[in-house]
């Protein structure tokens, strides 16, 4: 359950990265300390910063945002060449206002890409998301750079989840195998227009309305010179996720909330860009297997703070169905 946090914890995960291929990692003192901090952060805020030491170079982190910014500067006709449609598996470019949160159009544009699914792999549910990703033709570098970045984000997320798995269950591999051994992933390249000024004051548009993320873990790579992402604490205050150079903002999604039986929070957050400048964010969502049946882990049922031994507080969900229902209700096209 979220607390009344006033800022988001910062975690240096390098001791975990150093040991995370060692099956005995949980016994290492450095790992134990990282696990303690992850556990605290996931309980209190559902959000934390992963500080330098995460293993993805600042040059690459910045480059994926810059190349994204260049794309959004193109004329609309150019961007439409990779237009997102239901027939394209909801992959590609989505213009401002086409993403909707609780019925209100968001003031952002985006390119969405997803792990590519084999035809017929997941029946009718999987079919909705089938299709090749649509990448801009120019520059040539775009696709290669993004694919390299995706690979590194998958790797980093797997490692962070080993730490979270130790925190919840004692063993590092709870989120591998049939839960997330073949993780689905989503990458959204997002652009938020600068706030329009009327009578000398910025008019705050909602770049993205209050929502929770759908999967296990999100890695947010945001512009480092604008504060726009806000996280809601238990008391209902919005706490800014002020950018920290070279770090990711990391947060828990709905599937991890269910698996942990609510011990960890998938915290509400929103985006308001009140800067006059265009803001870019690259959000990487690491999810369970597409067909994973997600329900509270036994150990989390026993640990549930409500204390009614063996109680299951959260309902089961099938990840792919959760995603498809979100896409079909929140994408207006
Ligand atoms: N976790 C993901 N994929 N985030 C995308 C933005 C969420 C906002 C969306 N309109 C919604 O209401 O869910
Ligand atoms: O723009 C951001 O900082 C976060 C975006 C976000 O929350 C999302 O796409 O789910
Ligand atoms: Fe989000």
From TrEMBL:
A Pfam family: 2OG-FeII_Oxy
Ranges of residues in domain Fe2OG dioxygenase: 183-288
Gene Ontology terms for molecular function: dioxygenase activity
Source organism superkingdom: Eukaryota
Species in which this protein is naturally found: Camelina sativa (False flax)
Lineage: Eukaryota, Viridiplantae, Streptophyta, Embryophyta, Tracheophyta
PROSITE patterns (UniProt xref): FE2OG_OXY (PS51471)
Keyword Oxidoreductase: yes
Annotated protein name in UniProt: Probable 2-oxoglutarate-dependent dioxygenase At3g49630 isoform X1
Keywords, sorted A to Z: Dioxygenase, Iron, Metal-binding, Oxidoreductase
Family of this protein: Belongs to the iron/ascorbate-dependent oxidoreductase family.
Gene behind this protein: LOC104791246
Keyword Protease in record: no
